[in-house]
């Protein structure tokens, strides 16, 4: 038989007294009048496993291991001619074909941000006369220097500072002012170069 409201209230009061013997009648009545009991629940916080970053070599370790050194038997101009051909195709694709009607400043802006590994460059001006006339394929570009292999199979380390380099592709000649070009190849792609400004060695 279903219980009436009075019987139900009496049952709940008796149950609460048994369950909460330390609380008085007023506290039990307060629980009843609120009609809602919020049960506290402590969720276990899941700790995310920390990802271990793979530690690479430091600059000092790379130098000690000579990771970027080109072996003497590999320092031959003929070996890197295919790299130069790939670089020319890369620049043609980058400049959409290098058509005769292409604006020079458009090509220049593309070259300033392009990867120069494989390009043939010539030192046209320098504060150090011994650098003038050096021509070869860029094998490595660092922040402050170019490593160039010449036709005589000699590896030349040419600083960017105080040197002007010329670069020719499909009849278009571009000049690189090394003093304004002291950036890593990865940094140049995001840098905004000024089209006009003071040019010095």
UniProtKB/TrEMBL annotation:
Recorded GO CC terms: nucleolus; ribonuclease MRP complex; ribonuclease P complex
GO MF annotations in UniProt: ribonuclease P RNA binding
Entry keywords, A to Z: Nucleus, Phosphoprotein, tRNA processing
InterPro entries: RNase_P/MRP_Rpp29-subunit, RNase_P/MRP_Rpp29_sf, Rof/RNase_P-like, Rpp29/RNP1
Compartments (UniProt record): Nucleus, Nucleolus
Pfam families registered for this protein in UniProt: RNase_P-MRP_p29 (PF01868)
Keyword set includes Phosphoprotein: yes
GO biological process entries: rRNA processing; tRNA 5'-leader removal
Subunit-structure text: Component of nuclear RNase P and RNase MRP ribonucleoproteins. RNase P consists of a catalytic RNA moiety and 10 different protein chains; POP1, POP4, POP5, POP7, RPP14, RPP21, RPP25, RPP30, RPP38 and RPP40. Within the RNase P complex, POP1, POP7 and RPP25 form the 'finger' subcomplex, POP5, RPP14, RPP40 and homodimeric RPP30 form the 'palm' subcomplex, and RPP21, POP4 and RPP38 form the 'wrist' subcomplex. All subunits of the RNase P complex interact with the catalytic RNA. Several subunits of RNase P are also part of the RNase MRP complex.
Family: Belongs to the eukaryotic/archaeal RNase P protein component 1 family.
Functional note: Component of ribonuclease P, a ribonucleoprotein complex that generates mature tRNA molecules by cleaving their 5'-ends.
Record protein name field: Ribonuclease P protein subunit p29
Lineage, opening ranks: Eukaryota, Metazoa, Chordata, Craniata, Vertebrata
Gene name, Swiss-Prot/TrEMBL: Pop4
């Amino acid at each position: 038989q279903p219980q009436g409201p009075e019987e139900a209230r009496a049952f709940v009061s008796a149950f609460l007294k048994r369950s909460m013997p330390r609380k008085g009648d007023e506290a039990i009545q307060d629980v009843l009048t609120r009609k809602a009991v919020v049960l506290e629940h402590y969720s276990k916080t899941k700790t995310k496993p920390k990802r271990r970053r793979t530690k690479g070599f430091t600059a000092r370790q790379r130098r000690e291991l000579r990771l970027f050194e080109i072996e003497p038997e590999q320092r031959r101009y003929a070996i890197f001619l295919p790299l130069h051909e790939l670089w020319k195709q890369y620049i043609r694709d980058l400049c959409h074909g290098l058509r005769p009607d292409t604006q020079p400043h458009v090509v220049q802006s593309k070259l300033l941000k392009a990867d120069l590994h494989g390009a043939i460059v010539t030192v046209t001006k320098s504060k150090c006369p011994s650098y003038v006339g050096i021509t070869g394929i860029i094998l490595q570009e660092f922040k402050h220097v170019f490593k160039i292999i010449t036709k005589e199979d000699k590896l030349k380390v040419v600083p960017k500072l105080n040197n002007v380099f010329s670069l020719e592709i499909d009849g278009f000649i571009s000049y690189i002012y090394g003093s304004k070009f002291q950036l890593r190849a990865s940094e140049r792609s995001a840098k905004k170069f000024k089209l006009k400004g003071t040019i010095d060695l």
